[in-house]
Amino acid sequence: MEAFDFVSPISIEEAVKTLASHGDKARIMAGGTDMLVQMRAGRRTAPLVVDIKGIPELNVLSYDSAKGLTLGAAVPCYKIYQDKTVAAAYPGLIDAAYLIGGIQIQGRATIGGNICNAAPSGDAIPAVIALSGVCNIAGPNGTREMPCEEFCTAPGRNALENGEILVSISMPVPQANSGANYLRFIPRNEMDIAVAGVGVSVVLDGSGQNFVSARISLASVAPTPVFAKEAGDSLAGKPVSEEAVQQASELAQAASKPINDMRGTIRQRTHLIGVLTRRSLNKAIERARGG
Amino acid sequence: MPGVTHVKTTLNDEPIDFLCEPRQSLLEVLRDVLGMTGTKEGCNDGNCGACTIILDGIIVDSCLVLGVEAEGKEITTIEGMASPEGLHPLQQSFLENAALQCGICTPGFLLAAKALLDAEPDADEGRIRHWLAGNLCRCTGYDKIIRAVLQVSTAK
Amino acid sequence: MTSNQVLSEIEYNVVGKRPLRPDGVDKVTGRARYGDDTNLTGMLRAKLLRSPHPHARIKSIDTSKAEAFPGVRAVVTAKDLPFAVLSKEELGGEYTALKFASDHMLASDKVLFKGHPVAAIAAVNAHVAESALALIEVDYEVLESVVDVREAMKDGAPLVHEDLRTNDMGETADKPSNIAMHMSYAMGDIEKGFAEADLVLEREYTTATVHQGYIEPHNTTAFWNSDGQLNIWTSTQGSFQVRGTVASVLRLPVSQVKVTPMEIGGGFGGKITAYLDAIAALLSKKAGAPVKALMTRTEVFEASGPAPASWMRVKIGVKNNGKMTAVETEIAMDAGAYPGSPAMQAIVCAFACYDVENGKVDGYDVVVNKPKTAAYRAPGSPQAAFAVESLIDEICGELKLDPIEFRLLNAAKEGTRRIEGLVARRIGLVECLEAARAHDHYKSKLSDNTGRGVACGYWPNRGFQSSVVMTVNFDGVVSLIMGSVDIGGTRASIAQQTAETLGIAYEDVKPTIVDTDSIGYTFITGGSRTSFATGLAAIDAAEDVKSQMISRAAKIWDTSEDDIEYVAGVVSHKSDEELKFSFKDLARQLATTGGTISGRSNVDPTGEGNGYAVHIVDVVVDADTGKTDVTRFTAIQDAGKAVHPSYVEGQMQGGAVQGIGWALNEEYFFDDTGKMMNPTFLDYRMPTSLDLPMIDTVIVEVANPGHPYGVRGVGEASIVPPMAAIGNAIHGATGNRMRSLPISPVRILEAGWENGKS
Prior knowledge:
The structure holds three protein chains of three kinds. By secondary structure, chain A is α+β, with helices and mostly antiparallel strands. Chain A is built from eleven helices and 14 strands. In chain A, the strands form four sheets. A five-stranded antiparallel β-sheet of chain A has the order 4-5-10-6-7. In chain A, strands 11-12-13-14 form a four-stranded antiparallel β-sheet, sandwiched between helices. The relative contact order of chain A is 0.12.
């Protein structure tokens, strides 16, 4: 690996100042599980690595029944699923945190890093989009918020401007009778990149028999994670039924634009989006009904 | 030549200092700077688990941690697993159950299994298989490794 | 439900027991020293510049900028190899072999695969060496490449070697070709055999390039001392093999090269070829310092020796009762960039499980622009078995015959003549099949969506040379010195055979593996030979010790050796009950009665151990995703005699799981030009612990008549059956017959779409 300098700012202000003054010479590192691999393989270079794990705001993991979840961008996956309150409130997020890499990777990898890495296959991203996650960004010009579905702009590229960092991800309090799920397909049972992935959240009415609303998001079927808005919206107001789920899965398929590569074919991926959307919706419905 | 950083950390319960370049992984520091070669390199990209260490109680791939990140941390490597009184029960169980053939993945498996049983002494076969999925073994087919960990687990 | 059984007929005192391995404590505490753990004063690190192109002519290499880079101590290219200055006339018949070996290490005129080394740098650390690699300027003329074995065989295909001519059964063809060799065997009357058949099926099969997947990357440390002695410390399956290759490529007498085998982190055949050692040696000579090299995982995938991709056509004729009347196969194996695929082993093993009168087999060794393939556990046999055992399952389906009964009806047994002419001695295939038929697994009911498959497999287990020395210490402990590298428990298995022969305790044998200066020539650890052949050497050396112990007792008792017997570790006078020494008592007398005793043996056993395996597997296939889960697996194998049953089970389980990976998900993805797209453990998908059930084992013991304890060797046969067994099980679960490996989820989905059976 080429040589680099390493700094560990302890405040957002310090981090932003450092990043702003170094421009594209600096790269942010959280868990490092993607970045160090990319740097070692020569796919990314960075004369300056900025470790943001020492900044208090990026290590916040808090759930408030009024405000919802604040997930600092440097919080590793294992802390999320070990937090019983968070795990109970956001099982759809836990699905993803529990899938990223093996246990060793989960000890380092962060949801924030997964989002910033902006891989089409990033497992956390559809889960966060489905849960209406919002990215809280700090930069030289103050702070701004952005829905997660707008954050990834191209493979490996995100919406952060020069000097900006992702501070945290916010999620609203789960509504009554709601449920979420993330499912992916991989050839093994662990350690693979998603051939296709689907994150969903549903809100049912009090009877548990009708959809109030739904959000569906897809992995590995486009240059960036896909927010399949029409697929989710198609469920709103409909009775929970196989037909409704089937129709949503077809709309999800229509929203995907996969490519052929060594991890999957267009036909396979499109097919899997259908299968996974149905399975994921059924799991989310089960959870919404208290299952 | 790039500058080096002075790092203070705790390795197998002993406070130590070392110098390293920022680009050196903790794996490289352990093996090449500190001469602790029990931690093995298998892939250097976080996909095999041979370099597993325990960092502040959490298992990580030491190839994906920078040496400079060890500042103020507590590290356990395979060299710190046995005590002067004898082998750790998992080490003994791996021996008795023939849970190693070539042995290159063994330090990583032992530390991962230790972290699991420290947290969940009653881990069952399913849990052990899930926990160890980040550690590749190519010799054993995992059967005897799983049995060796199960023998130490209180799950029956 | 899970179980490990040993079907044993003969009990010994030490052989067949399960003692702790002598190197065990070092390996569970991190103290065992593997190749990359070598650290010498002043040691430099080497990195290799590798070709980005699968096929290109090297027009020029400029290393001047790299040489000037701070921290760089030496740079070498093919120009530094002796081959560069040797003429065809000087080398004579050696020319081609040396050019291939030399060019494989460092390319001279052409690069033949992506990852082919073109230069190497030694620097103060690996990062500096890596940075300096970028400063080497290589001017390539990119050439059209050929990747697929069948394409490479066609007229007009790009030629990997412009001057390679087919060796067709000893005749050299008149024009260049990528087919390095054609080999063929036949017996009986194949036309008649097929004419007599009630059913003849003929199918084609393919398998993908796969890797052994050992976890430890290739490494070496070389120090070319100023006295001219070259020392090498490396992870290898054969220290003498490394010595031979290095001496040959560097044109040194073998005795000028000393190779010390370090502990080895897996090999499976892939750590026989010496990739780095001669390069590190050249760098060491130039730099005047020790040089260590370590491959990255990507280099291991791209530039070590995977197992060949293959194409196979198989035709089998049977009577309605299942009796086979004729068999035929054509097998083309991709050798990679240089000749030497295991096509010969493939055609010999293809029908070795069956007793059939009429047959013809043809093999083709074909070069392509891929890394030169290397041995991988039973090289050639798994591909052939996938084809043959899949077709047999199809025949059983057509004729509604039980797959084990079919195999019992046709099984090879003592006296069966194999296609290359070898007549089998006592072998245990029938016993394995009977054990399979009797196993709870085979008798259990199948649940919905589950399929069950069965397949057989064979590997010859040949002997070759081994050398063993043992000395008797004055406390009665025997030092066992050998050249066979221990890759998975052979210190224990050789020590057990030594202890058994001497009639002493296992704990009283201390095995040590030494360098090439300290023991006689010993062939590689591989081919399931070590416990068998080095075991034979140890038994023979122990017999040598026994006869010397008898002589010594005769001397002490002032009697004739004929009056003394050595039974179960006790040396006693045949007629005087008072005169008796335990092994330890006599050992204590050695110092004062003429000194220590050393036994020695150098063996080169001929004949074959003949390992047979039968596997039963259950799978569940998710019809919606095409994903296969292996839910139950039973491996049955004739070990002859399991010296250490735990490590025999380990070989059976490990081979089975490598086979599961080969069957379901492992493959090199190449782009059209031959660049590997997935050179990481992330995308080269070997099974994890979460992908597998326990692997049940049944050790069958039908003694090998060629070994005193009946040992056959166990490492190879276990990887042969799984691919066909799984393919057959997937057919059972889905109704789709899968004829290409791997049987990945996308292939299962596609088969379902094609056949309307998804």
